[in-house]
């Protein structure tokens, strides 16, 4: 059975290995019956690398890789091959936006084309959002999306590695830090803690099986101690599957010292 994601005007389909060309074209034409879908692409590899990119193959409809996507009342434009974007995180982004308070200083790490940054700005009206992303093309689209959604007075996009950008923020401390990080071994928690103060809330996304969830959470608390900081876990929520028996978890924490 084929699985697919719809990113506005583009449907990206993942077929089983045994699928034949005529079966793929049939599925593509079925998807095009949805008038909002203008292009159907086949996903030809898994998400890979720190930039979380994919490769696709054109199947049917308009020949483009530029998505025009609407979510939570916000508009986003991006290249589906060069910019990571998961429509499955729509409820996550809205959930975090509802946690955000008016007038807060917010840091978004691994911000991509700006979905968390823009939606938080639009929904919660914080004082300021710093949106850090490594990928140059993602940042180009993030800046475009910030302007498109009229939140340029709130969101500032910074391109670069969080390890290099965060030390340049000086003595600034944030009320809320959101970490929709890639599925990498490194936690980047130490980088977040350098711009945290007592009371800072951290929303961390981690990946593991259900059996290892408690171990992952304990690991974060132990890591904080290495930096002579103390954190309290507020709650741990499942935020979607990434593979059979592998889940994404949203871990909400508050810095106590």
Q: Roughly how much helix do the residues carry, as a percent range?
A: 25-40%
Strand order of the largest sheet: 9-8-7-10-11-13-12
Number of helices: 7
Task: Estimate the mean pLDDT confidence.
Answer: 95
Shape: globular
Number of domains: 2
CATH names the topology of the largest domain as Rossmann fold
**In CATH, what is the homologous superfamily of the largest domain?**
Vaccinia Virus protein VP39
Query: What amount of the residues lies in strands?
Result: 35-45%
Find the structural class using helix and strand composition: alpha/beta
Distance between the termini: 50 Å
Cα gyration radius (Å): 19 Å
Query: Which spans of ≥5 residues are poorly predicted at pLDDT below 50?
Result: none
Series of secondary-structure elements, N-terminal to C-terminal: EEHEEEEHEHEHEHEHEHEE
Give a quick account of the main beta sheet: strands, pairing sense, barrel closure: 7 strands, mixed
Descriptive keywords:
alpha/beta, Rossmann fold, 4-stranded mixed sheet, 7 helices
